[in-house]
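Protocol step 4 of 6: structure prediction from sequence.
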Amino acid sequence: MKISIKTKLFLVCSIVIALIACSSNSNDMEEEEPKDPIDENKIEPFELSDLDPNLPSFVSVINTTPDDMQWVKVEAMSDEFDSWDDDKWFNSFWNYGNTPVSMRSENSSVVDGKLCIKATLDENSQLWFRTARVHSKTQISYPMYTECSMKTSSLSAFNTFWMNNGDIDDRDEIDIVESNANPTPECSDQTNKPSNFPWTPWDFPTQMNSQYFIAKGGVTERHEDNFDTRMLSDANPNKGKTWDETYHIVGAWWKNARTVQFYLNGEEAGEVITGQNFTRELELIFDLWTSEECYLGGLPQKEELNDDSKNTMRVDWVRTWKLEEK
């Protein structure tokens, strides 16, 4: 059977039109493909200076505040350190055992808008590491959140921000951070440590040592959750920075009788869940101290205590909130 030219042209046009339609439908399908779901927990790049100072830092990063609750500032446990406030702070003078540490009020001060705890040398004493410890006069319980912006000394020493009430045998304690930016070479050497060596001094320059203690009748429960600045998101400006390199924001959300969520520079930084209840109201504490024990980093060289570029822990501010129903 002969096919006319008209028929041939009709068939060709039909094929072309069908191809165009398929191509159009294919494009439409591509456009209609579902996009990846938005990750609400993805952290976008930010600067610490952009975080809202009127709220916990994490509220500006990823806000996990319960919808029916609000943060209410506790002024008695907050300070921008424009001057020393006797109504908020006091020094204590008990010394850590088996250390060269001597606590003195003159080693704490407010200078240039910073709370400073300075280590100085007392050559003529076995307690040659003069330093200070500062407490809040107000105590607080859960649910609450507290955080400070701190830059540590460059000594082999523990720069701390913690909460406590009680004594060695009967106490509740939350150590928000204990950081040593410059452990001794001997203690940082991993080759001479047993496999079960406690803590990791070789990681101390960036490690956030956080833990809790509940002691009752001399029996102590303890556990830690140690974060690290290297574990922060790529969006965080302080990722990988050492404790004496810049100011870091460290905080704790004491959620309930058994749960504490730690924070570092606006991000979640580990959590501890206790086996028994916290039962005491706690005060805020800052101090600077050292020990020869390698799991704490070891002793600094005495001459380093005369170096003002190394010997001072600084706190830019501390802010505390209670979590209350709206």
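Step 5 (inspection) to follow. The first helix runs from residue 5 to 32.
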